[in-house]
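User: Can you predict the 3D structure for this chain?
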Amino acid sequence: MSAPSPAAQVFPPDGELLPSIVSLRTSHPSLGIPKLLILLRQTHPTWSVSDKRFRKLLSSLAAAPAAPSSKDIPGLDVEKVGRGKVAVRWFEGGKGKGLVAARPLEQGEIVWTEEPWIYAPSWDVLAAQRSTTHCAHCTRLFPSPPPPLLTSCPRCPLKYCTRLCLTRALANGHAFLCAGHNPACAPLWQLAERERWHALMGVAAIWGRIIACEKEEEREWVVGCLDALAGLSQEERARRSGDWPTQAPALQSLWKSAHAALLQTYRPSGPPPPHLKKYLRQPLPALADSLLTYESFLLTLGMYSLKSRGGVHALHSHLNHSCSPNLSVRHIMTSNKPGVPPDWTITLVAKRDVAPGEELCVSYVDPCLGVRERRERLGEWGFECGCGRCVEEGKEEGGKDKREGK
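Assistant: Here is the predicted structure, written as structure tokens:
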């Protein structure tokens, strides 16, 4: 029997090749050009891309201002999560992925609800958890009198609805962030609480899930969710500020201290306590290990700083921005989950009637702001909004400035 013939090689156009290069560079910021090219060829075995062409396209990206990039989430059941009401679509012009209506939506209609794939409680929720009035995993308010299934962490005062919540918390990172389980986490908590740095604890939660995953498919899901977030490195965001030249030394020192504290928490240099060993996966797969570098830390920090109040939601992360959004994000208490904090489950509601195929958008900033302030705040996301509203209001602002002689 003859061997099967190899797949025909194709020469992908720049419009198809560039998004793949951006995605690889974003996912693996510490890799050099040769290794990135190897990854590209492994990801797209039928593509024929020369070293010269690859370097040229990388150089063109380096010359352009950094911008957010994202990709789809493998294994995300959009049909199920989105209740058959939404579909993923890729847009040209560097916009990337987005969501469109799969059928007509009526004003006020609930499009979908979603719980986060990663959650770091806000400081007020954390205070409630520490006071043992709320579950330290799902954040539900405990009824009075306390339920019989209420259980405690064996090494700290935090309490949980059930044994299941405790087990999930330990597997999702609590084992690393509990001083009773892991004394090495103390510097991380001290730094985060001193700076009131919620995004740092968001990164800590992501690292905990990646490292503690028992099943490789679960780890791939978490890494896929992380890769799907559009965002800028925290340093790139800071460089866009006019204060960067004076603030750079202090900020870089702070970031390096945070990264060192994370490494101390999750990759202790000495022998870990016996009860922590079951959560330390050794050796860590190369893909996950690459996410623990300083460059990847800055990227994840920038992503979490932009995207999250308390949790990050997989399908919600597909939504693009508009200053005239047709969806609103609401935190609606549900009858079967009394007391759940408002930054846990999100509900997407149609602000007006939406036609099938129309892109679904939310506003990344307060849409009540003026065009100048909206654009200034959207600069942190790495783009300048060019929606119809911004164009019209920009013309009005320009005319007003001319009349006032500015």
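The CA atoms of residues 291 and 297 lie 7 Å apart. DSSP finds 15 helices and eleven strands in the chain.
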